[in-house]
Amino acid sequence: xxxxxxxxxxxxxxxxxxxxIPACPGVVMQVMxxxxxxxxxxxxxxxxxxxxxxxxxxxxxxxxxxxxRRGNATNSVPQALSRLGxxxxxxxxxxxxxxxxxxxxxxxxxxxxxxxxxxxxxxAAGLVSRKVRGIAPDMAYTYALFHNxxxxxxxxxxxxxxxMLKEVEVSGLSLVVEEDARYRCSHAVVGAMLAxxxxxxxxxxxxxxxxxxxxxxxxxxxxxEDQAMSLIALTHVAERLLMELNGEVDIEVGGLFPQAVAxxxxxxxxIHDLQDMxxx
Length: 280
Known about the structure:
Blueprint: H1 9-17, H2 26-35, H3 42-50, H4 53-63, H5 77-84, H6 86-102, H7 108-129, H8 137-146, H9 150-157, H10 161-171, H11 175-183, H12 187-197, H13 202-210, H14 226-246, H15 256-264, H16 268-279
């Protein structure tokens, strides 16, 4: 299949039908139900988080990060969750549950590298959001953490996917172009399905679906609301700056980077400031 091939809806649906989207665990649905109440009970949410070692550890680590830390470090789950707020509690539960769901099918070291990378991008996106009006750091963090969450799902379905990723990193080809050519779908499309199935907001699901669309920043084709566009743009900026900082090949953002910078209205001084922030 050539790079210029445009997938038909039938081709896409045929491929998607063969990809198993992990079922949303009961603990996630329980937390979602509580978090969506007019007045969520933090004690209920704390009890759920504290019952799981992975969720507790993630909560404390995130609460002590540069993005959320205020004052002294904490080792207390209730204090950590109070600092993070309800939206980030949902993020923690979904992230840990998704990681646990995919473990066993994918080598532990590969999954660890993926989630460590996702967490780094999420932290960076949260920092970038402080330069942007209208996007809260916690929303930026949540979106960035999950925007590539379908990559492990693709790894599980396609046995050569991990090898393909390495080939793309060496060659510098576009990841989504290679995905479409080999598998007739992309992690962006699968990721939107995953987000919807796991109860993430329609805003996040839409931003995940279109974060690789080459026309996403085209003002003549507005198909996303401004908040979704801002989430995509600030994550594009965060990813590129992290890649540059780590000396990595950019297989994700490519030519969308300058468009993202322009969309957010970031100046050269802003970019330099963000580079300095990420180096700390």
